[in-house]
Amino acid sequence: MIQIKDLEIKYGSFTAVNKISLNIKENSSCAIIGPSGCGKSTLLYGLAGIVKPASGDIFIREQPVKENRRKTGLILQNYGLFPWKTVWENAILGLKIRSISMEEIDNTVTTILQELDILELKDKFPVQLSGGQKQRVAIARALSIQPDLLLMDEPFSALDAITREALQNLVLSLQQQKKMSIVFVTHNIEEAVFLGQQIVIMDKTEGSIKHIIENKNFGDRNFRFDEGFFQLCMEVRRIMEVSD
Ligand SMILES: Nc1ncnc2c1ncn2[C@@H]1O[C@H](COP(=O)(O)OP(=O)(O)OP(=O)(O)O)[C@@H](O)[C@H]1O
Prior knowledge:
Keywords: ATP-binding, Nucleotide-binding, Transport. The chain is α/β, with parallel strands linked by helices. The protein has helices at residues 40-48, 87-96, 102-115, 131-144, 161-178, 189-195, 227-241, and strands spanning 2-11, 14-24, 29-33, 55-60, 63-64, 72-75, 149-153, 181-186, 198-202, 209-214.
C-alpha cells in the first residue's frame, strides 16, 4: 500500500528524516516508535503530504503523495479539535470541505458517532468532554471520509491506562472491519507491540530506521497477558536502548 524510498525530509539545513525506505502492506498496521526528536512525527507528516520531501519518494497505492489525498485520515497530537465547535461540527469537518450533500453527511456521521458510542455527545463542546471522548470525536472525524489509510500521531498518549486500552481495542476492530491501513506514532512500547503488525524503531538522533520487527501476534487481545508480549516489549526496549 505504501512505498517509501530513500526519503529525506529537512527543516532548513536540518535533516529530520534521513534516507528512510519502508514498505507498508494493505490493511495492516505499522507502529513508529523511537525517542523524542528522532523524526517520527515528521515521517508521518510526510505520509500525510503536510511536509514535502527534500529527496526520495512516497507512493500510496502507486500514486505519489500529495496534500489532501482523499482517502487519508489524519489524527494529530492532542486530538486537533476546534474548541469553538460542537462534537457534531467537529466530526463533519472532513466531509464539509468536500462537495457532499448535507443529507449524506448527516447519515454518514450519525452512523459513525453511533459506532463510537458518542452520538449523545453531539451538541457538547470539546471542553465538556473527557480525554477518551475527545479522542473518539477525533477518530470519528478521521473515519467520516472513509479512509483506506489512517495516520495517527500519539493518539492515546494523554489517556489513562484503561481508557487507552479500550481505545486501542476500538481502533483495532475498526481497522479490521473497515479494511484500512493504520500508521501510528507512539512513545509507548506496549502500544507498539499490541497494535503494530510492523514495528518500526527509529534511531535516537539520526532520523533513520534502526530496526523493523514483524509482529505476528499483533492485535490479539489475549496477547497482552502472554509471556511472549512481555518478551517482545523487552526486545523493543533493548533495541531502542542500544547505542550505535
Ligand atoms: N518545524 C520545524 N522546524 C525546525 N525543526 C523542526 C520542526 N519540526 C520538528 N523539528 C525538529 O525535527 C526533529 C524531529 O522532530 P519530530 O517532531 O519529527 O520528532 P518526534 O520523534 O516526533 O519527536 P516527539 O516524540 O518528541 O514528538 C527534532 O529535532 C525537531 O526539533
